[in-house]
Design a protein that fits this description.
Layout (H helix, E strand, L loop, with lengths): L2 E3 L9 H7 L8 E3 L7 H7 L4 H12 L5 H12 L12 E3 L4 E4 L10 H4 L2 H12 L4 E7 L3 H10 L5 E8 L5 H8 L6 E6 L3 H13 L1 H9 L2 E5 L5 H20 L9 E6 L4 H12 L3 E8 L4 H8 L1 E3 L20 H9 L2 H14 L1 E3 L2 H8 L2 E5 L2 H15 L5 H17 L5 E5 L7 H7 L9 H9 L8 H4 L10 E3 L4 H10 L1
Parallel strand pairs: 4-14, 5-6, 5-8, 6-7, 7-15, 9-10, 9-14, 10-13
Antiparallel strand pairs: 1-2, 3-4, 11-12
Helix pairs in contact: 1-6, 3-4, 3-11, 4-6, 11-12, 14-15, 17-18, 17-19, 19-20
Length: 495
């Protein structure tokens, strides 16, 4: 299988090359030239398998230049060795009216672990396969969870360095502590004055600066990404949609072949896009429901066909979704149109005018697959309280956004298909907001007192990766402006 740019520069790459490069030379995102198809027997065969075995089968369909042995080795290193606290890695908690796909049982307690424990293994293998001699510098912009997960995944991986930029004041206190205490000889964390979109735009500008990349090349360094713009980051996320389906059939919640819905809390559109790929492959998915917070640019787009980032930016209790530029939407537009020229034009409009309009015909096609809504912080808090009272289950704030939108979708549409809410983070990562939603006054409590307090309500123990932060030294204290991110990169590679 070959990969090309969404913006149509015509250059084809194998998956290993696409993963190393991260972003296409024309600024587009790598997409597969075909989407593999599965049948009922493929789905049936998944049921008795471990998560690692399921991952091997699905990844093998896309990463055709990797051997079966290489993929299995990568998968075992990513998900084995005691890194996850759940036997099935991405377990499904089943209630009468909804099922919850828990993606936060990895080392950083967020769904990003599902991909970012695997991406470093795929990239390291790719470097060996291609004979690449340069050092690879991973540049990451994060709204919180990606940063820590990427840092942990790439820590001390040979031939690779990683540098993470995060918006100062734009992540939770736990997320900040996770990043600033990160160990490893090849890692750097730098705060940026601004919001996530400012940090993400700065990273994209660095990737697109030919002169700057020439300077890096002279130093024997090439850039790549661990954000979901990298295909090696996105493709592992397809796996857990298949795994959830297999688990629901195995548990007797659904019958084989029965269509189900997924509601996904969405910021950069990567997680829900993985669900789209799963549906295109043949997984019986009826609707993909996109759930947003007050930064509801995706909801507006999926309702109107107009993407417009020219709006107020809101800081919410779901900071990982405080995003106004959803990079992976570009991949969806490409697959829906097969027209790289139109996609390139829309992305140019977004860069120059901050908006684009895909028109009524394409919107109707998108709406056959997607539905969208958003929630306020108040509604999110109310949902957490209600779920705890009714089910004695504590969702994090991002999961609560999805749960609230899932409820609203069922009320508005009358759709009775089984619903899966995609749960993206442990409630312990957003403990203050969750406790407030549970009616607990968290004022004056430090992060670790908050963890202990939440433990009184939650059946799951405090993740070791969070409790161990207590007393750890802060190792990364750098702060820069958006305009000085390049200088920060140069300083890091010279260190």
């Amino acid at each position: 299988m070959k990969y090309s740019s969404t913006r149509g520069n015509g250059v084809l790459f194998g998956s290993a090359e696409a993963i190393i490069q991260g972003l296409a030379a024309d600024g587009g995102l790598f997409v597969p030239d075909e989407i593999p198809q599965i049948d009922e027997s493929f789905l049936a065969d998944l049921q008795p398998l471990t998560y690692e075995e399921r991952a091997g089968k699905i990844l093998g369909l896309f990463l055709t230049d990797y051997t079966t042995e290489e993929i299995q080795s990568c998968v075992e290193k990513a998900y084995g060795q005691g890194k996850f606290d759940a036997a099935m890695r991405a377990p499904v908690t089943i209630f009468d009216d909804v099922s919850v796909l828990e993606l936060w049982h990895g080392p950083t307690s967020a769904f990003k672990d599902m991909a970012l424990q695997l991406l470093p293994q795929l990239m390291s293998t790719a470097l060996k396969k291609t004979g690449e001699k340069d050092e690879v510098l991973i540049l990451v912009a994060t709204s919180g969870d990606t940063g820590k997960a990427a840092l942990e995944g790439f820590r001390d991986v040979p031939q690779i360095r990683i540098m993470v930029f995060y918006p100062e004041g734009g992540v939770s206190r736990i997320q900040r502590l996770q990043m600033l205490t990160q160990e490893g000889g090849n890692v750097n964390v730098t705060a940026v004055h601004g919001n996530f979109d400012d940090a993400q735009s700065g990273v994209k500008q660095i990737f697109g600066d030919v002169t700057f990349n020439g300077l890096l090349a002279e130093a024997g360094v090439k850039l790549s990404s661990a954000n979901s713009i990298n295909w090696g980051r996105l493709v592992p996320q397809i796996v857990y949609y298949f795994s959830a389906y297999a688990d629901l059939v195995k548990a007797g919640k659904i019958e084989a072949g029965q269509a189900i819905n997924f509601t996904v809390p969405t910021g950069n559109f990567g997680n829900i896009l993985a669900g789209f790929y799963a549906k295109c492959m043949g997984l019986p998915v009826n609707k993909l429901i996109c759930a947003s917070n007050a930064n509801n640019v995706l909801t507006d787009f999926l309702r109107t066909g107009v993407y417009d980032r020219n709006r107020d930016f809101h800081k919410t209790i779901t900071p990982s979704m405080d995003i106004l530029i959803s990079s992976n939407l570009e991949r969806l537009l490409y697959h829906m149109t097969s027209d790289a020229g139109r996609v390139a034009g829309w992305m140019k409009d977004l860069q120059t005018a901050g908006r684009y309009d895909v028109g009524a015909e394409l919107l109707a096609k998108i709406q056959q697959v997607f539905w969208a809504d958003w929630t306020t912080d108040a509604d999110t808090e109310n949902l957490i309280g209600r779920v705890y009272r009714e089910k004695h289950y504590v969702p994090d704030t991002h999961t609560a956004v999805a749960w609230r939108v899932a409820d609203h979708y069922q009320q508005v549409t009358g759709d009775k298909q089984p619903m899966v809410v995609v749960s993206t983070a442990s409630p312990y990562k957003f403990n203050g907001s969750v406790l407030n939603a549970l009616g607990v006054d968290a004022e004056g409590l430090d992060e670790f007192e908050l963890l202990d307090k939440l433990q009184e309500f939650n059946n799951n123990p405090i993740p070791q990766g969070l409790s161990s932060l207590c007393g750890k030294a802060l190792r990364h204290t750098a702060v820069c402006d958006c305009e000085t991110m390049k200088q920060a990169v140069l300083q890091f590679i010279k260190s």
